[in-house]
């Protein structure tokens, strides 16, 4: 077997080394998560824009951008937990207590939101009243200045 033929059958030959390096880099980036991919893309755009564009396309078509990590976000987990809280536990006494407590908390939340709304309205009214008072003071000061200039103008003529 010649060295060229041996190299052709060798899986660690120069023809496959770049591909294995790319696979290792991809595996390393996958282990670091989506922030590593986004960082690589941004750095690619900063240093040489075609590299950033290539990484962006790879992320989109390789399902790196919209992978399963987006589907299993904290929001979805919290939403599922919220629905689970509404299910019956099987204990009627506890379910009655839970229902009563949730109603009480909802009433307290509504009353607190009403209080905050009244507080905002009072603050807005106070700010508006202060604006109107400042405006009327300025108008009075302007009128007095006009009267004084008119009075001094009459004395100068006499």
Strand content: under 5%
Mean pLDDT: 77
Counted up, domains total: 2
Secondary structure: number of strands: 0
Helix/strand-derived category reads mainly alpha
Total number of helices: 7
**Tell me about the biggest sheet?**
none
Unreliable segments (pLDDT under 50, ≥5 consecutive)?
Answer: 1-13
**H/E element sequence:** HHHHHHH
**Radius of gyration based on Cα positions:** 37 Å
Report the principal-axis shape. flat
Please give a structural write-up.
With 158 residues, this protein is an all-alpha fold. It is 84% helix and 0% strand. It is built from seven helices and no strands. The protein has helices at residues 3-9, 17-32, 34-47, 49-61, 68-71, 74-86, 92-157. α3 (34-47) packs antiparallel against α4 (49-61). The protein is flat and about 95 Å long. The termini are far apart. The relative contact order is 0.03. Pfam families: DUF2852.
Please outline the helices and strands.
Blueprint: H1 3-9, H2 17-32, H3 34-47, H4 49-61, H5 68-71, H6 74-86, H7 92-157
Helix pairs in contact: 3-4
Transmembrane segments: 36-61
Region (Disordered): 132-158
Pfam families: DUF2852
